[in-house]
Design brief:
It is built from ten helices and 16 strands. The chain is α/β, with parallel strands linked by helices.
Length: about 325
Amino acid sequence: MKQWWAVPGENGGVPELRDVRVPTPGFGEVLVRMAGAGVNRGELMFNRVLRIDNPKARAVRSGIEIAGVIETLGDGVDGWFVGDRVMARGAACHAEAALVNAEALMPSPAGLSDVEAAAIPNVFVTAHDAIVTVAGVTAQDTVLITAGSSGVGTAAIQIVKHLGATAIATTRSPAKAAALVDLGADHVADASSPDWLSSMVDQIGPVTCVIDQVGGDLFPGLLSALEVLGRYVSVGRNAGSVSTIDLDLVARNRLNLVGVTFRTRSPIEALECSRRFAADLWPSFDSGVLRPIVDRTFGLDDLPGAHEYMRSNAQFGKILLVP
């Protein structure tokens, strides 16, 4: 079968499509035939360190989420059957089929296609972890969500509104503002304007929570937009991982700063994130209250094209690979 790998290159990881043997499920695993697999910005960030001059760089299989149909069951799998429609966070998902821990499986919502279901696992689990588990957002909160048109951003807006809170979404593309409002954003801030943060605070007031995917030079301004006892959650660092911090501001306003990632979580910790998401939100997909936003699909053989489109920042929602 065909499977994508990221291999070390002179300027970072290079996608390589390989022909590999179809894997056999081990104990507690299932083989899922891929109907859709998410493309995520973390792949671009990780690929930067896969340089041939990095002695620790090793080729890795690509893709962390999948939706499709169970094709084969391993020993010890209960409650799942061949032919079941499923979605999951996993590994090596940019392939015609992937092995998935049965404990990570979630049923694909009945009202969604398998391709649509593939747009759920990573971004909604990530957003739920940041908003609900870490930030503890309630209906009394005003939440600023940077990069609102991204996969995580479109999930975060919906979750914040589902909780009854006020959602402020940012975008550097004014043409996306109407779609963000349609998705549920109460306010949209044009982040291409140099004084957008001060203007937002003047118009709306300070926020109680920031869900940030940008970082970099934007970080100090985001902290200044928080009210006393505000919570800042770093989900992504698309504009850079290094910034400055006013420690006096942090102390004076008693701010709570937290970073989240799956890279340092154990498999059990990552599974718990998926379980909490499923317990809280999975029924809302069946009812239509929450919905995945699919921007564009690319054929399995065109992962480089999907990555190039992601770099353009033109997307609104998820980018997916399909067979």
